[in-house]
## 1
Amino acid sequence: MEAISTSGGWKLAWLGSRWPARCAWVAVFATLATFAVFCAFPFYWMLITTFKDVHDLINTANNPFVFNLPPTTENLRVLFQETAFLRWLLNTLLVGVFVVIITLVLAVPAGYSLARLSGPRGRQLAIAIFLTYLIPPTILFIPFSRIVGALGLQDSLWSLVLVYPSFTVPFCTWLMMGFFKAVPRDIEEAAMMDGMSRFGAFLKVIVPLSSAGILTVIIFTLTLVMQEFVYALTFITSSSQYTVSVGVPTFLVRGDVYFWGSLMGACLIVSVPVALLYNVFLDRFVTAFTVGAIK
């Protein structure tokens, strides 16, 4: 009996020692599950609203979180057949590609130059570039309108290609500067000792090592182009030239009538690829934003 009681006591002691760890694991799991549900709920809401019948949507007695009537594709039919949604997607993609190219061409060399420019002058110049990103677009769209009009780019997608780098380049330059500072100078100096020029060392050594930062610039730029509204509304007047951020609310909000199913369908189609892109490259994206925080 003593052996049994001793064994039982040992088991209770062992379980007692594991209990805090198990509680901590349950708490962590519950926190992550709550956070995951919180983040995924907007996508669930968009998905279920997209396929809900309009009578199911407007009836306040129905449960909004489930299908009370059979699902329907009428909302998608309205989106694709009664609006130029595909055209707006193509316009957004076209503008995004050109803005990404311009941003990379300007921000990557600028970030490298500021990272290698030592002394207080370099820091002051870097802060000045970043401060330009903080200027609200609502202040700049009036002078930009005069520039766009003088260049004859009104009601043209090229006006957006010209204007959008004004807020993508400063932030991306600051981002790339922090990333290049984390790359040891010894690496490029060793490449230059092997016969490379500084530009060659930058292009063949530094740029491949900075792929995470460059990928972050691409994702950030595309996201801003897809969600920007003020400039696109100011400079574009023809519906065939609209981007998604302007075309969808313009044609799916008619007076006090909201086509909620079609609106949510458009939001779902646009947001899912961006969310997948963020999740696929999450590690590199976080690395680019946290680089330089610890060495």
Note: Residues 1-5 have pLDDT under 50 and may be disordered.
## 2
Amino acid sequence: MVSFLLVYATGEGQTTKVATRIADALAERGHETTTVELGGGGGADVDVEAHDAVLVGASIHMGKHQKAVRRFVESHREALAGRPTAFFQVSLSSATDEGAAEAAEYAEELFERTDWHPDRIGLFGGALRFSEYGLLTRFMMKRIVKENMPDVDTGTDTEFTDWADVDAFANDVAAFVEGRLGVVPPRAD
């Protein structure tokens, strides 16, 4: 069994859904996962050393990751370097083929800024939750969507996350960590 730490920050909840799905997939493989949503402090009190592997997740808002994620990586860079790590990002840019390069640039910018080099990277489409936005945010998001995603109905909430991709990422991370640590996953009967 591998002890995973999964830390993340979310803006509107889609990253929480992705983190939960990843934690569930790791548990199905017989591993233990401690999940921590990062607050403003960036997880300074999280004991990275107590875990065999770490996954870090963030969403993109207005072209930026949450500061708490950057602070976590900067605060724990040495501990992260000493174990298998993975990063996942949730963004609207990842929802389209045209936006894929932009989504990858956001991740690369975080890695360059923090000097962290995760072993595995997953980029997933986010969600539009028009029903939950305030008036100004709803107006801005509708304009952005109409310009960049004209086929999307701005009158309803839409989820762009490809859950099969999330499952594949979780299983790839688990297999990588199992191999690196020499852990044999339990056999499914």
Note: Residues 87 and 121 are 5 Å apart (CA to CA).
## 3
Amino acid sequence: MTPFDDLTLLRDFVQIVESGSISAAARTLKVPQPSLSRHLRALEDSCGAALLRRDTHGMCLTEAGHRLLADARVILALADEAAQRLHAEQAALHGHLRLFATIDFGQFTVSRLISRFVQAHPGVTAELGYTNRPATMIQEGYDAGVVVGELTDDSVIARPAGKVVRYVVASPQLLQRQAKAQTPEDLRGWPWLALAGAQFGGSTSVTLTAPKLAAQTIAISPVLVSEGVTSLREAARAGLGVVVLPDWLAREDLVAGRLVRVLPQWNAPELPVHVIYPGQRHLPARVRAFVDFAVTYMTTEMHANA
């Protein structure tokens, strides 16, 4: 062991010299005096020489102590400067982010999220890919993703970021052609539109829940199955069928009267939202910052829309 292996011992030594005594240095550093004495002895042992002479008149540096003090001050100054540069680099994020998100949700909510993050960190650029099959996206080099639905990849770390509220809607024109529905079972024979992907519940059945009532699952035979929920909204607006849509996508059409809720007391199960990132890879500062930002943003956004 050399005298320069432990910066804490060097800092304690400099503080003792600058304070004029071990007891004064201990008060400044807020450590017990015996601990500081042990640190000084450990440093002297590593030097193989006494650094301080102490007598009834006080304390003074030995020749070795003078040399070590000069070197210690230079080393500690360099260490402090390096730490400040590292902190500055962490505070001023820079670099490129490769991100992905679930189709449709990525085009709307996640695009706004990324915009906020890049505006807050002008040194960062980003690209956004869309997929409803995210299992290989991390392996393909993406840094992080925001996905809706049940997770299908157990190799990633997933942080919960809210839930998506969903319900059944249809166009006023379709409702005029169908007998009035009283229960989920009445919807079994209606023309259905469905979102592809088991993580969203599948396209062959629909489960609905209502307060104080048992959940009901009905089998459906969709007239249209799509990987994009926006395309299903457009088909529903055209009167092609009834569909389960997320609240964030259906809300404006409901207000405008282009769509109407069917069985408004019944909802489809909420879908979880997760921010996912690699579990076996060192995360750059920009990725860690994005993940934290995304979890906070999405949780707030989903709560506001609940």
Note: The first helix runs from residue 7 to 19.
